[in-house]
Design goal:
The complex is a heterodimer.
Chain A lengths: L1 H23 L16 E2 L1 H6 L3 E4 L3 H6 L6 E2 L9 H8 L6 E4 L7 H12 L5 E4 L2 H6 L1
Chain B lengths: L5 H26 L1 H10 L5 H21 L6 H24 L10 H4 L6 H24 L14
The chains are: A alpha/beta, B mainly alpha.
Amino acid sequence: MSSLIKEFSLIALLTSIGAAFSLFHGWSPLPWAEPELGPGEIQLMDAQALDVIWLDARSAEAFAREHIPGALHVEEGDPDAALLQLMELWLPEPRPIVVYCGSESCDTSRRVADQLRASLPEAEIYSLKGGWDAWEQ
Amino acid sequence: MGAINPTAYIILIARLIVSAAFIFAALPKIQDPISFASSVEGYQLLTGTAVLWVALLLPWLELVIGAGLFVPQMRRVSALIISALLLLFIGLHTSAWIRGLDIECGCFGEAASGAMDSYLWLILRNTALLMASLAVLMRDWKKPDRMRARPAAQVP
């Protein structure tokens, strides 16, 4: 039994040394570090580099005050209402769709993006990291 | 010179095949853990930090136990972990097949994988490897000291 424990320990030790080597050489990202982007998110710089369709998931008032040029407004509870307008833009020229809400802490854009992915499975849909605040900066 | 034992040769070949499969599977994933992480994520069973830990540790574990099949101080537990991992991989591929996922296997890293190999082929391949590793495991378990260094006087 003790020889099995020794074998397990040796394998664990060598695996840990290998993993440390990967981290030391920068081959692997630090697993405990906060990931830069969550699943389905896109950085503003990357979105600007692509010719994207913007979807504003903030309130109607905030949209009326100011929005990204060319953006469509979408209500979280009823994303299908914006779907027709979205299809008019997307169908003739399919391109990535980026949904944004107010700030880094809001979650509406992620939820709307999830809903839209179900309606438009062929489309490339992201939520904007940092939201409107990132655009304003 | 003792008589040739065919079973011993079969076990040696099984050991070589399983060892080579794990070592060659590990090397590209060690060099490119980010691609491997994306393959792991494709199975939709782990997310975030857990994916990165798997992508960091699993390739090194595969390398260590692949080589460990030939190291007397590690070979029993290496064969045991290899068998457990192969069972896990068969389960993962079956689960992905049932869920209709269209993913990259990630088995031999990003470079070796084009479109997803057929699930049936992956499951059959891992089952064959599992049979081989179980044969090695049973042999090593019955004769734990067989590959250890022996005093010169006992060597035939």
